[in-house]
Amino acid sequence: MTDTVRPYIPAMGRHWMLFLYDPFARVAGLSQVHGELLERAGVQPGHRVLEVGCGPGDLLMQLGRRVPGADLTGIDPDPAALRKARRKAARRGLTVRFTLAYADELPLPDDSLDRVLSSYMLHHLDEEPQVAAMREIRRVLRPGGELHVLDADGTRPPGARGHQHPRLAGHTPERIQAVMRRGGLTEVSTTGHGSRRVAGNYAFFRAVA
């Protein structure tokens, strides 16, 4: 657990908006999109799994129900989101560790994980912190372990008009793949795309340690 408090972007973009996370997730169909990510990740009983930027813990809740024998940990820099995640896990009778930490300072030993997951976290970071996070993910994954990422796709169609969030400008699959490679990961690929009316465009990525 880190002792240093650093700036970060919370799950809903503003701390006071955390109470809106669950209704937003329902309207956006986030559970279904998380399900797609988990299908790609192929977690098995006995796997040690980390979610980086777990927020209120919904992805790990779904994984815990799908694969009861997996060892699950979530990290996030937001204490309020972690408290919410712990309450959810307790209500569901799931064993998940939730730890206050940052993506570039993972509180785990080298070569200790089978899978690392990330859902809608990467675009919260600038490019160099993204690379630093990838290096940490590479460090904690065992050889052959896999990173699976779901994130917003900031690709602008030709002739597109209207406002785009500054954090999505240039946040394209090509750039995300380049960040993964700079972090030392291999077999980097975009494994799928999707779009939802509320959530917008998104993409899935896979890389190997």
**How far apart are the termini?**
24 Å
State the order of secondary-structure elements, H for helix, E for strand: HHEHEHEEHEHEE
Given as residue ranges, the uncertain stretches (5+ residues, pLDDT < 50) are: none
Count up the helices: 6
The radius of gyration is 16 Å
Global geometry: globular
β-strand percent reads 25-35%
Largest sheet: 7 strands, mixed
* Strands ordered across the widest β-sheet: 3-2-1-4-5-7-6
Structural class: alpha/beta
Average pLDDT reading: 88
Q: How many strand segments?
A: 7
Please bin the fraction of helical residues: 25-40%
Question: Which short descriptors sum up this protein?
Answer:
209 residues; alpha/beta; seven-stranded mixed β-sheet; 6 helices
Write up what this structure looks like:
This protein is α/β, with parallel strands linked by helices and 209 residues long. The protein is 32% helix and 26% strand. It has helices spanning 21-28, 30-41, 58-66, 79-92, 127-140, 173-182; strands at 48-52, 71-76, 97-100, 113-119, 141-152, 186-196, 200-208. It has a seven-stranded mixed sheet with strand order 3-2-1-4-5-7-6. Helix 3 links the parallel strand 1 (48-52) and strand 2 (71-76). Helix 2 crosses helix 3 and helix 5 packs across helix 6. The longest helix has 14 residues, at 79-92. It is globular, with a radius of gyration of 16 Å. The model has no long low-confidence stretch (mean pLDDT 88).
What's the layout of helices and strands?
Layout: H1 21-28, H2 30-41, E1 48-52, H3 58-66, E2 71-76, H4 79-92, E3 97-100, E4 113-119, H5 127-140, E5 141-152, H6 173-182, E6 186-196, E7 200-208
Parallel strand pairs: 1-2, 1-4, 2-3, 4-5
Antiparallel strand pairs: 5-7, 6-7
Helix pairs in contact: 2-3, 5-6
